[in-house]
Amino acid sequence: MRLLILATTKFAPTYNEKLISQINYFNSFDNMKADIFIDASLVEIEKMLSTSQYDLIYPTTVFDYSNDGSSIISFNSYLYKLLEYYNINYIGSPLFSHLLLNDKALTNLESGMGLPNQIVTRQAWIANRKSVEKKLLTFKLPAIVKPNTLAASLGIDESSIIWNTDDFGKIIDQRFQSFPHLTEILIESYLNDATEYTVSITGNTGRYLFNVSKLKSKTQHHALHSYNSKLTISEKRDFTYVIEDNRGVLYELQKHTEQLFEQMHLRDMARFDYLQDKNGKLYLIDANSLPALSNNYLYEYISTGRLRLEQLLLLICLVAQKRIGLKINTKLLEEYPVEIVRVLF
Protein backbone atom coordinates (compact mmCIF):
# COMPACT_ATOMS: atom_id res chain seq x y z
CA MET A 1 0.00 0.00 0.00
CA ARG A 2 1.41 3.35 -1.10
CA LEU A 3 -0.26 6.39 0.43
CA LEU A 4 0.37 10.03 -0.46
CA ILE A 5 -0.61 12.67 2.08
CA LEU A 6 -1.25 16.26 0.99
CA ALA A 7 -0.55 18.51 3.98
CA THR A 8 -0.11 22.20 4.67
CA THR A 9 1.88 24.44 7.00
CA LYS A 10 -0.42 27.36 6.21
CA PHE A 11 -3.33 28.66 8.28
CA ALA A 12 -4.55 25.92 10.66
CA PRO A 13 -1.62 23.67 9.62
CA THR A 14 -2.21 19.97 9.14
CA TYR A 15 1.51 19.20 8.99
CA ASN A 16 2.31 18.78 12.68
CA GLU A 17 3.75 16.37 15.23
CA LYS A 18 0.51 14.37 15.38
CA LEU A 19 0.56 13.71 11.64
CA ILE A 20 4.26 12.85 11.70
CA SER A 21 3.69 10.28 14.46
CA GLN A 22 0.84 8.75 12.47
CA ILE A 23 3.01 8.52 9.35
CA ASN A 24 5.83 6.89 11.31
CA TYR A 25 3.39 4.32 12.71
CA PHE A 26 1.98 3.65 9.24
CA ASN A 27 5.47 3.15 7.81
CA SER A 28 6.49 0.75 10.59
CA PHE A 29 4.63 -2.10 8.88
CA ASP A 30 5.87 -4.22 6.00
CA ASN A 31 4.65 -3.15 2.55
CA MET A 32 3.08 0.05 3.94
CA LYS A 33 4.60 3.32 2.75
CA ALA A 34 3.21 6.81 3.31
CA ASP A 35 4.83 9.82 1.66
CA ILE A 36 3.96 13.44 2.33
CA PHE A 37 3.62 16.40 -0.05
CA ILE A 38 3.76 19.70 1.89
CA ASP A 39 2.29 22.98 0.59
CA ALA A 40 2.23 21.71 -2.97
CA SER A 41 0.69 23.93 -5.63
CA LEU A 42 -2.13 22.65 -7.82
CA VAL A 43 0.35 22.55 -10.73
CA GLU A 44 2.68 20.32 -8.72
CA ILE A 45 -0.19 18.14 -7.55
CA GLU A 46 -1.51 17.66 -11.08
CA LYS A 47 1.94 16.74 -12.35
CA MET A 48 2.22 14.14 -9.60
CA LEU A 49 -1.27 12.77 -10.29
CA SER A 50 -0.54 12.35 -13.99
CA THR A 51 2.24 9.88 -13.18
CA SER A 52 1.02 8.67 -9.81
CA GLN A 53 1.95 5.23 -8.56
CA TYR A 54 0.05 5.71 -5.32
CA ASP A 55 -2.84 3.49 -4.28
CA LEU A 56 -4.52 6.19 -2.22
CA ILE A 57 -4.35 9.96 -1.65
CA TYR A 58 -5.17 11.62 1.67
CA PRO A 59 -5.93 15.36 1.35
CA THR A 60 -5.72 16.72 4.90
CA THR A 61 -7.42 20.05 4.15
CA VAL A 62 -10.30 21.20 1.94
CA PHE A 63 -9.25 24.85 1.76
CA ASP A 64 -7.36 27.17 -0.54
CA TYR A 65 -5.16 29.78 1.14
CA SER A 66 -3.87 33.29 0.56
CA ASN A 67 -0.40 33.59 -0.99
CA ASP A 68 1.23 34.27 2.36
CA GLY A 69 -0.66 31.37 3.96
CA SER A 70 -2.13 33.54 6.70
CA SER A 71 -5.81 33.13 5.81
CA ILE A 72 -8.37 30.85 4.17
CA ILE A 73 -9.77 32.04 0.83
CA SER A 74 -12.32 29.39 -0.04
CA PHE A 75 -13.03 25.70 -0.48
CA ASN A 76 -10.40 24.20 -2.81
CA SER A 77 -12.79 22.56 -5.27
CA TYR A 78 -10.17 22.29 -8.01
CA LEU A 79 -8.07 19.88 -5.94
CA TYR A 80 -11.01 17.49 -5.72
CA LYS A 81 -11.80 17.93 -9.40
CA LEU A 82 -8.23 16.93 -10.22
CA LEU A 83 -8.56 13.77 -8.12
CA GLU A 84 -11.71 12.88 -10.06
CA TYR A 85 -10.27 13.83 -13.48
CA TYR A 86 -7.30 11.52 -12.96
CA ASN A 87 -9.48 8.77 -11.45
CA ILE A 88 -7.42 8.67 -8.26
CA ASN A 89 -8.66 6.87 -5.15
CA TYR A 90 -8.68 9.18 -2.14
CA ILE A 91 -9.64 9.13 1.52
CA GLY A 92 -12.79 11.00 2.45
CA SER A 93 -15.93 12.32 0.84
CA PRO A 94 -16.56 13.33 -2.79
CA LEU A 95 -16.51 16.89 -4.13
CA PHE A 96 -20.22 17.69 -3.84
CA SER A 97 -20.41 16.51 -0.23
CA HIS A 98 -17.46 18.73 0.71
CA LEU A 99 -19.11 21.67 -1.07
CA LEU A 100 -22.32 21.14 0.89
CA LEU A 101 -20.71 20.82 4.33
CA ASN A 102 -18.47 23.81 3.68
CA ASP A 103 -21.64 25.93 3.62
CA LYS A 104 -23.19 26.11 7.11
CA ALA A 105 -26.53 27.50 5.91
CA LEU A 106 -27.02 24.85 3.22
CA THR A 107 -25.95 22.10 5.63
CA ASN A 108 -28.52 23.26 8.18
CA LEU A 109 -31.19 23.41 5.48
CA GLU A 110 -30.38 19.93 4.16
CA SER A 111 -30.29 18.45 7.65
CA GLY A 112 -33.68 19.74 8.73
CA MET A 113 -32.15 20.15 12.20
CA GLY A 114 -30.79 23.68 12.02
CA LEU A 115 -31.59 26.54 14.35
CA PRO A 116 -33.58 29.53 12.99
CA ASN A 117 -31.19 31.56 10.85
CA GLN A 118 -30.76 34.25 8.22
CA ILE A 119 -28.07 34.76 5.58
CA VAL A 120 -26.48 38.15 4.96
CA THR A 121 -24.50 38.31 1.71
CA ARG A 122 -21.70 40.83 1.24
CA GLN A 123 -23.43 42.10 -1.88
CA ALA A 124 -26.72 42.76 -0.06
CA TRP A 125 -24.90 44.34 2.89
CA ILE A 126 -23.13 46.79 0.61
CA ALA A 127 -26.06 47.57 -1.69
CA ASN A 128 -29.04 47.39 0.71
CA ARG A 129 -27.66 47.71 4.22
CA LYS A 130 -30.64 49.57 5.68
CA SER A 131 -33.06 46.97 4.33
CA VAL A 132 -30.98 44.11 5.79
CA GLU A 133 -30.72 45.87 9.17
CA LYS A 134 -34.48 46.44 9.21
CA LYS A 135 -35.09 42.73 8.63
CA LEU A 136 -32.67 41.84 11.42
CA LEU A 137 -34.75 43.91 13.87
CA THR A 138 -37.23 41.04 13.93
CA PHE A 139 -34.64 38.31 14.50
CA LYS A 140 -35.16 36.73 17.90
CA LEU A 141 -32.24 37.32 20.28
CA PRO A 142 -29.80 36.18 21.43
CA ALA A 143 -28.18 35.40 18.08
CA ILE A 144 -24.71 34.44 16.93
CA VAL A 145 -22.88 35.78 13.88
CA LYS A 146 -20.88 33.15 11.96
CA PRO A 147 -18.83 33.28 8.76
CA ASN A 148 -20.82 30.91 6.54
CA THR A 149 -18.04 29.19 4.60
CA LEU A 150 -14.90 29.22 6.72
CA ALA A 151 -13.40 26.55 8.96
CA ALA A 152 -15.79 25.57 11.73
CA SER A 153 -14.96 28.12 14.47
CA LEU A 154 -13.02 30.71 12.49
CA GLY A 155 -14.41 34.20 13.08
CA ILE A 156 -16.42 33.07 16.11
CA ASP A 157 -15.75 34.43 19.60
CA GLU A 158 -17.67 36.02 22.48
CA SER A 159 -18.20 39.20 20.44
CA SER A 160 -20.12 37.10 17.89
CA ILE A 161 -23.05 36.76 20.30
CA ILE A 162 -25.69 39.44 19.77
CA TRP A 163 -27.77 40.51 22.77
CA ASN A 164 -28.92 43.83 21.33
CA THR A 165 -30.09 44.41 17.74
CA ASP A 166 -28.02 47.62 17.61
CA ASP A 167 -24.86 45.46 17.63
CA PHE A 168 -25.61 43.59 14.39
CA GLY A 169 -24.16 46.26 12.12
CA LYS A 170 -20.86 46.57 13.98
CA ILE A 171 -20.22 42.82 14.15
CA ILE A 172 -21.21 42.17 10.52
CA ASP A 173 -18.89 44.99 9.41
CA GLN A 174 -16.05 43.53 11.46
CA ARG A 175 -16.47 40.03 10.02
CA PHE A 176 -16.59 41.17 6.40
CA GLN A 177 -13.53 43.40 7.01
CA SER A 178 -11.59 40.62 8.77
CA PHE A 179 -12.26 38.11 5.99
CA PRO A 180 -12.10 39.92 2.63
CA HIS A 181 -12.89 36.76 0.65
CA LEU A 182 -15.97 35.92 2.73
CA THR A 183 -19.19 36.24 0.70
CA GLU A 184 -21.87 35.39 3.31
CA ILE A 185 -22.47 35.65 7.03
CA LEU A 186 -24.88 33.36 8.87
CA ILE A 187 -27.06 34.87 11.61
CA GLU A 188 -28.24 32.00 13.81
CA SER A 189 -30.27 31.71 17.01
CA TYR A 190 -28.02 31.23 20.03
CA LEU A 191 -28.84 28.80 22.83
CA ASN A 192 -27.12 30.10 25.94
CA ASP A 193 -27.88 27.22 28.28
CA ALA A 194 -27.56 24.27 25.92
CA THR A 195 -25.40 21.16 26.05
CA GLU A 196 -22.98 20.75 23.16
CA TYR A 197 -22.02 17.39 21.67
CA THR A 198 -19.53 16.45 18.99
CA VAL A 199 -20.10 13.13 17.23
CA SER A 200 -17.55 11.52 14.95
CA ILE A 201 -18.55 8.77 12.56
CA THR A 202 -16.12 6.41 10.88
CA GLY A 203 -16.96 3.82 8.24
CA ASN A 204 -19.20 3.23 5.22
CA THR A 205 -22.42 1.52 4.07
CA GLY A 206 -24.01 0.81 7.42
CA ARG A 207 -20.86 -0.28 9.27
CA TYR A 208 -20.12 2.68 11.49
CA LEU A 209 -18.04 3.45 14.55
CA PHE A 210 -19.43 6.35 16.57
CA ASN A 211 -17.77 8.53 19.14
CA VAL A 212 -19.93 10.87 21.21
CA SER A 213 -18.20 13.53 23.29
CA LYS A 214 -19.94 16.07 25.50
CA LEU A 215 -18.46 19.51 26.06
CA LYS A 216 -18.61 20.18 29.78
CA SER A 217 -18.39 23.88 30.57
CA LYS A 218 -16.18 25.09 33.42
CA THR A 219 -18.42 28.15 33.76
CA GLN A 220 -22.09 28.57 34.61
CA HIS A 221 -23.29 28.79 31.02
CA HIS A 222 -22.53 26.89 27.82
CA ALA A 223 -18.93 27.69 26.84
CA LEU A 224 -18.52 28.97 23.30
CA HIS A 225 -16.19 26.71 21.30
CA SER A 226 -14.34 29.54 19.55
CA TYR A 227 -11.37 29.33 17.20
CA ASN A 228 -9.11 30.75 19.91
CA SER A 229 -10.23 28.01 22.31
CA LYS A 230 -9.09 25.42 19.78
CA LEU A 231 -5.61 26.95 19.90
CA THR A 232 -5.57 26.94 23.70
CA ILE A 233 -4.12 24.00 25.59
CA SER A 234 -6.89 21.82 26.99
CA GLU A 235 -6.11 22.66 30.64
CA LYS A 236 -6.81 26.37 30.05
CA ARG A 237 -10.00 26.05 27.98
CA ASP A 238 -13.42 27.03 29.37
CA PHE A 239 -14.63 23.49 28.75
CA THR A 240 -13.47 19.90 28.77
CA TYR A 241 -14.58 16.80 26.89
CA VAL A 242 -16.35 14.04 28.78
CA ILE A 243 -17.89 10.74 27.72
CA GLU A 244 -21.70 10.76 27.53
CA ASP A 245 -23.23 7.83 29.44
CA ASN A 246 -26.94 8.53 28.91
CA ARG A 247 -28.03 5.74 26.56
CA GLY A 248 -31.07 7.64 25.33
CA VAL A 249 -28.94 10.63 24.31
CA LEU A 250 -26.34 8.34 22.72
CA TYR A 251 -29.00 6.59 20.66
CA GLU A 252 -30.51 9.84 19.39
CA LEU A 253 -27.14 11.35 18.47
CA GLN A 254 -25.93 8.21 16.72
CA LYS A 255 -29.23 7.82 14.86
CA HIS A 256 -29.19 11.39 13.56
CA THR A 257 -25.49 11.19 12.69
CA GLU A 258 -25.93 8.01 10.65
CA GLN A 259 -28.91 9.50 8.80
CA LEU A 260 -27.03 12.73 8.00
CA PHE A 261 -23.87 10.87 6.95
CA GLU A 262 -25.81 8.82 4.41
CA GLN A 263 -28.17 11.62 3.36
CA MET A 264 -25.20 13.86 2.52
CA HIS A 265 -23.33 11.06 0.71
CA LEU A 266 -20.29 11.21 2.98
CA ARG A 267 -17.51 8.62 3.04
CA ASP A 268 -14.99 7.19 5.49
CA MET A 269 -15.25 9.82 8.24
CA ALA A 270 -17.05 12.97 9.34
CA ARG A 271 -17.96 14.94 12.44
CA PHE A 272 -21.25 16.54 13.46
CA ASP A 273 -21.74 19.10 16.24
CA TYR A 274 -25.06 19.43 18.04
CA LEU A 275 -26.71 21.52 20.71
CA GLN A 276 -29.35 20.03 23.01
CA ASP A 277 -31.76 22.51 24.57
CA LYS A 278 -33.35 22.29 28.03
CA ASN A 279 -36.23 20.24 26.62
CA GLY A 280 -33.91 17.64 25.07
CA LYS A 281 -34.35 18.77 21.46
CA LEU A 282 -31.23 18.43 19.27
CA TYR A 283 -30.03 21.01 16.76
CA LEU A 284 -27.20 20.64 14.25
CA ILE A 285 -24.78 23.57 14.48
CA ASP A 286 -21.87 22.38 12.34
CA ALA A 287 -20.62 19.49 10.23
CA ASN A 288 -17.10 18.65 9.08
CA SER A 289 -16.49 16.42 6.07
CA LEU A 290 -12.75 16.15 6.75
CA PRO A 291 -12.16 16.28 10.52
CA ALA A 292 -8.63 16.36 11.87
CA LEU A 293 -7.37 13.02 13.18
CA SER A 294 -6.67 14.42 16.63
CA ASN A 295 -7.42 13.34 20.19
CA ASN A 296 -10.97 14.67 19.96
CA TYR A 297 -11.89 12.63 16.89
CA LEU A 298 -12.12 9.31 18.74
CA TYR A 299 -11.89 10.80 22.23
CA GLU A 300 -13.71 7.95 23.97
CA TYR A 301 -11.23 5.37 22.67
CA ILE A 302 -8.08 7.45 23.01
CA SER A 303 -8.85 8.82 26.49
CA THR A 304 -9.41 5.28 27.78
CA GLY A 305 -6.28 3.88 26.12
CA ARG A 306 -8.10 1.58 23.71
CA LEU A 307 -6.59 3.50 20.80
CA ARG A 308 -3.46 5.58 20.43
CA LEU A 309 -3.40 8.82 18.46
CA GLU A 310 -0.69 7.46 16.18
CA GLN A 311 -3.05 4.67 15.03
CA LEU A 312 -5.75 6.90 13.52
CA LEU A 313 -4.26 7.44 10.06
CA LEU A 314 -3.80 3.73 9.44
CA LEU A 315 -7.34 3.03 10.67
CA ILE A 316 -8.90 5.58 8.29
CA CYS A 317 -6.74 4.25 5.46
CA LEU A 318 -8.02 0.72 6.09
CA VAL A 319 -11.61 2.01 6.14
CA ALA A 320 -11.08 3.67 2.74
CA GLN A 321 -9.39 0.55 1.35
CA LYS A 322 -12.41 -1.53 2.29
CA ARG A 323 -14.79 0.94 0.61
CA ILE A 324 -12.76 1.02 -2.59
CA GLY A 325 -12.22 -2.73 -2.69
CA LEU A 326 -8.44 -2.71 -2.22
CA LYS A 327 -7.01 -5.77 -0.53
CA ILE A 328 -6.47 -5.32 3.22
CA ASN A 329 -3.63 -6.97 5.10
CA THR A 330 -5.67 -8.62 7.85
CA LYS A 331 -2.60 -8.73 10.12
CA LEU A 332 -2.96 -4.96 10.47
CA LEU A 333 -6.40 -5.41 12.01
CA GLU A 334 -4.74 -7.15 14.97
CA GLU A 335 -3.43 -3.73 16.00
CA TYR A 336 -6.94 -2.59 16.89
CA PRO A 337 -9.47 -3.61 19.56
CA VAL A 338 -11.83 -6.38 18.50
CA GLU A 339 -14.85 -4.12 19.13
CA ILE A 340 -13.59 -1.67 16.49
CA VAL A 341 -12.63 -4.34 13.95
CA ARG A 342 -15.97 -6.12 14.24
CA VAL A 343 -17.89 -2.88 13.63
CA LEU A 344 -15.84 -1.60 10.69
CA PHE A 345 -14.55 -4.71 8.92
From TrEMBL:
GO MF annotation list: ATP binding; D-alanine-D-alanine ligase activity; metal ion binding
Gene3D superfamilies attached to this UniProt entry: ATP-grasp fold, A domain, ATP-grasp fold, B domain
Domain of life: Bacteria
Annotated EC: 6.3.2.4
Alphabetically ordered keywords of this record: ATP-binding, Ligase, Nucleotide-binding
SUPFAM superfamilies, per the entry: Glutathione synthetase ATP-binding domain-like
Domain ATP-grasp residue range list: 105-317
Family membership noted in the UniProt record: Belongs to the D-alanine--D-alanine ligase family.
Protein's recorded name: D-alanine--D-alanine ligase
Species this protein is from: Blautia wexlerae
Name of the encoding gene: ddl_2
